[in-house]
Amino acid sequence: MVTLAAGLLSLASQVHAGPVTQLSLGAGGEFANNAIRTQGGEAFSDAFRTLTLSSDRLVSGNLLTQATMAVDVAEVYLVKLNAQGQADMSTRRSFTEQLAVDWSQADYGAEQWSLAPVLLSAGTWELRVSGDVLGGKHGAAYSGRLQTGNSVPEPQTLALSLVALAAMAGLKRRRQQA
Asked: Terminus of the chain with fewer CB atoms < 10 Å: N or C?
C-alpha cells in the first residue's frame, strides 16, 4: 500500500492537463534550420512563429548547433507579437549561451543555448535566432526544442496528490495503532 501511495504521489507531479498550447514548428516543440547557406562571414536571421499560448505558461527550451558546421549563433530569444503581428521587444526573453566556441581557434564545434523556465503570458510568441556562418563553402545547421509546463498545478493534479498523501497518512496511523 505504501508503494501504491508513493507511486501515485510521484505521478501527480507529472500530470499536465489543461489548456492546449500550439507549437507550430514540430509536434513536440521542435524547431530547426538544417540548411543555412551563406558565404563565409555572412549573417543569418530566422524568425519562427512558434508558440500560441491559451493561458500563462512556463516555457523552457534549448538550441544546439551541429558539431561539424561552423555556425556562430549570436542571439536566441522569444518575443511576443501584438495584435498586428509585430514584435513587442519589451517582452523579449533571451536564451543564455551554455557552451561557446572560440571560432578564432577552431574550424568546427558546437554551441549550446538554453532558456530557463520563464512565465510567458497568453498570446502568440515568436522565436528568433541570428548569427554568422563561418568558412567559405560550409553550410550550417541548428536544432532545438521548446517545452511548456503549467505555472499552477491543475485541480486534477492537486486532487491526485491529496489522495496519495491521505493514503500515506492512513498507513502511518495504522502502523502506530498496531
From this structure: C
> Mapped to the 3 state alphabet, what secondary structure does the chain carry?
CHHHHHHHHHHHCCCCCCCCEEECCCCCCEEEEEEECCCCCCEEEEEEEEEEECCCEEEEEEEEECCCCCEEEEEEEEEEECCCCCEEEEEEEECEEEECCCCCCCCCCCCEEEEEEEEECCEEEEEEEEEEECCCCCCEEEEEEEEEEECCCCHHHHHHHHHHHHHHHHHHHHHHHC
The sign of the torsion formed by the CA atoms of 28, 34, 35, 36 equals: positive
Give the Cα separation of 66 and 43 in Å (integer): 17
Distance CA 133, CA 6 (A): 51
69's grid cell: 558546421
Give me the average pLDDT of each 10-residue run along the chain (178 residues).
44 35 57 68 76 88 76 90 93 93 76 92 91 65 80 64 78 82
pLDDT of amino acid 154: 62
